[in-house]
Amino acid sequence: MNGILLLRIATAIILLTHSVFGMFNNGINDFGNLYLNQIGFAPFGVFLAWSIKISHVVAAILLLLNKYVKPAGFVTIFILVMGIVLVHFQEGWFVVGGGRNGVEYNFLLICVLLAIMYPNGFKIGSSA
Question: Can you tell me where the transmembrane regions are (predicted)?
Answer without folding.
Answer: 5-24, 44-65, 72-90, 102-122
